[in-house]
Amino acid sequence: MDEWDLPQWKKEVESLKYQLAYKREMSSKTIPDEDGIPEDPFLNPELMKNNPWVEKGKCIIL
Question: pTM to 2 decimals?
């Protein structure tokens, strides 16, 4: 890191404290929660067809 001044360090410490306090769940508990996949518009291909925000085409290199 470059030389930081006191306000930058305080902001960094606040960010790390926030991340530390964030409640996380174990993967072993969240992976079995696949019951909602049929209703999820981002995971179900049939529902993705009706979603206007899903990209329709492939990437094109110019």
Answer: 0.39
